[in-house]
Amino acid sequence: MINTPIQPKIDPANPFVGRHSRNQTLESFVRWVLRCGTLVIVSVTAAIVLHIAVKGAPVALSREWPFVNVAFLTELPSTLHVIQDNQGHIIETDVNGADAIKMELGANLREEKTISYSGGGILGPIVGTAMLVIVSVGVALFLGVASAIYLSEYASHGTFIEMVRLAILNLAGVPSVVFGLFGLGAFVLTAPVFTNSPLDRAIFTLPLGFTTLSFQGWDTCVLSGGFTLAFVILPVIITASEQCLQAVPLEFRETSMALGATRWQTIWRAVLPFATPGILTSSILGIARAAGETAPIMFTAALAFKDKLPWQKDQISLPADASLFAHWEQNIQRFLAIFTESVQALPYHIYTLAARIPQNEYSERAQYGSVFVFLILVASLAATSIWMRRSLRAKYKW
Amino acid sequence: MSDSPASNHDAHFIQVAKFNYAYGDHQVLFDVDLDLHREDITALIGPSGCGKSTLLRSINRINDLVEIARVLSGSIKIDGVNLYSSEVDVISLRRNVGMVFQKYNPFPRSIFENAVYGLRVAGIKDKSELEEAAERSLRIAALWDEVKDRLHSNATGLSGGQQQRLCIARAVALKPRILLMDEPCAALDPIATARIEDLIAQLRGQFTFVIVTHNMEQAKRIADKTAFFYKGKVIECADTMDIFGNPKNKLTESYITGRLT
Question: What is the pLDDT of residues A261-271, one digit of tens each?
Answer without folding.
Answer: 999 999 999 99
